[in-house]
């Protein structure tokens, strides 16, 4: 009977579930000073009963209903704890993904500089190959001219020997 006004006050609260849960927390904080809360809550309970009418039979909770609500409350607290743990795990995974994404971004930027360096080297190598091909063409031309001069020299030497042989006879 001493707890009845508090239960009626909590169960008949016209507040939304968040505020009624805050009231339940406030009531749980006030439990150490039970005598003070009884004296304070008794007029409040009576005024609430006046607001809600005198239908005590409708709004009273049986012990089975109280036990059922407590079990449901424990189940909901367990589910909330599970959800909280899952959120923590997801948060950890998101932090890990963010860290890996930063590493990935750094590696991509490093690759970009490496690719630019490789591009510059390839451009330089291409220019060197073009210059080398031009040098080879020039060398082939010079070599062909040198061959012509050697051939001309050998032909002239041969004619000289033939002339000297003819002149000697």
Automatic annotation (TrEMBL):
User: Transmembrane ranges?
Assistant: 146-167
Q: What does this protein do?
A: Syntaxin that may be involved in targeting and fusion of Golgi-derived retrograde transport vesicles with the ER.
> Which residue windows does the record flag with biased composition (Basic and acidic residues)?
30-42
Coiled-coil regions in this chain?
Answer: 66-93
Q: Does the keyword Coiled coil apply?
A: yes
Q: How does it sit in the membrane?
A: Single-pass type IV membrane protein
- Positions of region (Disordered): 1-59
Family of the protein in this entry:
Belongs to the syntaxin family.
Highest rank taxon of the organism: Eukaryota
InterPro entries the UniProt entry points to: Syntaxin/epimorphin_CS
Q: List keywords of the entry alphabetically.
A: Coiled coil, Endoplasmic reticulum, ER-Golgi transport, Membrane, Protein transport, Transmembrane, Transmembrane helix, Transport
Q: Where is the composition biased (Polar residues)?
A: 1-12
One GO biological-process annotation of the entry reads: retrograde vesicle-mediated transport, Golgi to endoplasmic reticulum
Q: What is the annotated localization of this protein?
A: Endoplasmic reticulum membrane
* Protein name, entry field: Syntaxin-18
As one GO molecular function, the record gives:
SNAP receptor activity
Gene Ontology terms: cellular component: endoplasmic reticulum membrane; SNARE complex
Query: Where is it predominantly found?
Result: endoplasmic reticulum
